[in-house]
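Tokens in:
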């Protein structure tokens, strides 16, 4: 009996191509170029990244707060929600 190995994904997944190219998302050095955005653009990007970090922290804090309140009201929910 002949066996072969393949990277093909099951067709029922629908979101993956039949034979994915594993290097398609890897940046190729010959396609990269230096971008000089300037100080003003860099400052704006830092502000945006700061907002993103703040929002992510707030979402985590709220999620943990809701989880804590729910498990205080009904301790059996700890088994359903799983360990932290």
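Residues out:
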């Amino acid at each position: 009996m002949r066996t072969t190995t393949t990277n093909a994904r099951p067709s029922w997944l629908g979101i993956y191509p039949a034979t994915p190219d594993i290097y398609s998302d890897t940046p190729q050095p010959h396609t990269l170029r230096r971008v000089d955005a300037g100080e003003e653009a860099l400052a704006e990007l830092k502000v945006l990244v700061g907002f993103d970090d703040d929002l992510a922290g707030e979402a985590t804090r709220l999620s943990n707060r809701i989880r804590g309140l729910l498990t205080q009201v009904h301790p059996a929910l700890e088994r359903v929600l799983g360990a932290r």
